[in-house]
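Local shape tokens:
==================
===
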Amino acid sequence: VWINEIADHERDDRGNVVRNVGTIQDITEQIEEHTSELQSRRNLVCRLLLEKKNTNYPDKYIITLLRRTDH
């Protein structure tokens, strides 16, 4: 489970947190979709590199795909 939290902490005169105000959002689905997309791109790049001897893909194309998977 992936959670995104945005909160402010209210403190008393001694600096102790007495109240938290904010939101919590489950972002698991978005993370899983992003991860799946990156894995698909990495798989494509690996396949292209393995098949490079038999293809005409320019190195520039493969390097561009690799950069897109660095997130």
In short: The helical segments are 28-51, 59-68. The chain has a mean pLDDT of 84.
